[in-house]
Amino acid sequence: MTAPPDETRAAPRDPGLQPERTSLAWRRTFLALIVSDFLIWRAWTGSLAHHGGDIEGSSLGLGIGAAVAAAATVVLGGCILYRGASLRAAAAPPTLLVRTATTAIVALGAATVAAIVLGG
Questions:
Q1: Coiled-coil regions in this chain (predicted)?
Q2: FRET partner for 82 with CA separation of 20 to 30 A, picked from 13, 30, 90, 118?
Q3: What is the pLDDT of residues 90-114, one digit of tens each?
Q4: Residue 105 is part of which domain span?
Q5: E runs forming strands in 4-55
């Protein structure tokens, strides 16, 4: 048998601008999460001021929401740094990274909804 012609062999994959677009998307998402964190913290400090510094009622819920939002942002920041370091390989992200990032975003979304409900 003869070797297949060069046209049928798979050429190495050229990722093009995909890694850069992915990196920019992760950065935009992180920026949006930081803005959401600041809004939750602002609602919490406003609630503390309204209650005279006592942690009660909506202040407690907003405090928990602020803590969850901060933790979620730190976790997602770690995911972004890890993904940015491994982006050069142009491989799919590990499943654990995707699950961790998804959990962090869902937790931050829940904290944001709780801040809106408790702050309003």
A1: none
A2: 13
A3: 567 778 888 888 888 888 888 888 8
A4: 19-119
A5: none
Q: Tell whether the torsion through CA atoms of 85, 71, 52 and 116 is positive or negative.
A: positive
Distance of alpha carbon 33 from alpha carbon 21, whole angstroms: 18
Give the number of domains in the chain. Answer: 1
Q: Tokens for 46, please give them.
A: 């406003």
In a domain, residue 109? The reply is yes
Alpha carbon distance, N-terminus to C-terminus of the chain: 76
93 exposure class (CB count in 10 Å sphere: 0-12, 13-18, 19+): middle
CB 58 within 8 A of CB 4: no
41: left (phi over 0), alpha (psi -120 to 50) or beta: alpha
Answer for the pair 69, 105: CB distance below 8 angstroms, yes or no.
no
Write down the pTM of the prediction.
0.65
